[in-house]
Structure formats: structure tokens, C-alpha cells
Amino acid sequence: MNTLTGQRQQGRRCRRAVLASVALLVGGAVAGLAQAHHSVARYDLSDKVRRNVSGTVTKLEWQNPHSWFFIDVTGPDGMPVNWSIELSSPGALRRTGLNYDSIKPGDQVTVELAPIKDGRNAGLAVAIKWADGHEWRPTGQASPLPPAGQQGPGQQAPGQQGPGAPDAGTP
Questions:
Q1: C-alpha span between 75 and 66 (Å, rounded)
Q2: Closest-CA residue to 54 (of 142, 141, 154)
Q3: What would the pLDDT profile of 89-138 be if each residue is shown by its tens digit?
């Protein structure tokens, strides 16, 4: 093999090694950004500050990357105060027993949540308990939810439209 051919092959190997290194660096950076995007750092996860809020479900947004539902809680003045409750992705929720039909506008719920650190009326759901007593936790270690299509007290009949676009100003 002549010197020129050997130099070309070595140059190709070097370029491949550089491209592979760049691909790994870019992949690592993207993975880091994705992890940061899905962080729960904005919530106070300590057990000392968890709180329960009870109210009426007003809306469900079953969407990726995170689902949300909203409840009206009676404020100190007797007026409704809307709370934004963050959940996981629809796929992760299904794996723990929560389905799109599980939370419906009009349901009376008590939500144990990790509050958002900035003081807004928002939090990350730690547990949801319905008025009929059934409960859900993200670990799947709660009482089972009614089967799809079976209605609990205060639930609306099936046929709800899918969730709309997020409201402006939701976290």
C-alpha cells in the first residue's frame, strides 16, 4: 500500500473518531437538557410542607410531556380559587392505574401535593382521593380505581372532549 492511500485511511478514521465524539457530546447535552426540563426542582418535595387541597375538578389536560388538572378550592373569602396540579406523562400515569377517564370535571377530590416554591396556587400531585373514597398515588400503591367506564359518585358520563391547549399562565 502506498503512503498516500495509508494517509487517506488514517484521515478517514480520524474524522470518524471526531464525529463519534461530537455525537456523544451532543447526545449527552440533549439528555441533560431533557432531564432538566423534566425536573421537579420547582416544587418543595419535603414532607413538612406537603398540603392537602380539596375542591372540584374544573379541567383536565391529558398531554405530553406532563398532564395537568385544575380544581376550584374555596378560598377564605368563600370565593373559588383555581389550583393547577401537575401530573406525570399519560403513559406513566396509565402504568400506575390513572386513565383519561379517571379525572373528570365535576369530581370532588382531595389532592395531597408538593407546593410550587414560588407561592402560586399550584403543586405536584402526590396523591388524589375522590369523594367515594378511592385513591391514587404515583407509585400505584393505593386502592384501585374503578374500571374504565364505571362511574363513581359525582363523575360525569363518558363522552368528554379531549383536553385543549394549555391556558396562558399555567405553570
A1: 27
A2: 154
A3: 999 999 999 999 999 999 999 999 999 999 999 999 999 999 999 999 98
The grid coordinates of residue 158 equal 363518558
pTM above 0.70, yes or no: no
Across the chain, the runs of DSSP E, i.e. the strands, are: 51-61, 68-74, 80-86, 108-115, 122-130, 135-136
Q: Where are the domains of the chain?
A: 1-37, 47-136
Helix, strand, or coil here: 131?
coil
Cα–Cα distance measured from residue 155 to residue 164, given in angstroms and rounded to the nearest whole number: 20
Contact indicator for 132, 141 with CB cutoff of 8 Å: no
The residue ranking higher by pLDDT, 69 or 25, is: 69
Distance CA 166, CA 26 (A): 30
H helices then E strands: how many in the chain? Answer: 2, 6
Provide the β-strand partners of residue 50: none
Map grid coordinates 474524522 to a residue.
15
Looking at 3.40.720.10, 3.30.1490.110, 2.40.50.1010, 3.20.20.70, the CATH number of the domain 47-136 comes to 2.40.50.1010
Q: Tell me whether residue 139 is exposed, middle or buried, using C-beta atoms within 10 angstroms of its C-beta: 0 to 12, 13 to 18, 19 or more.
A: exposed
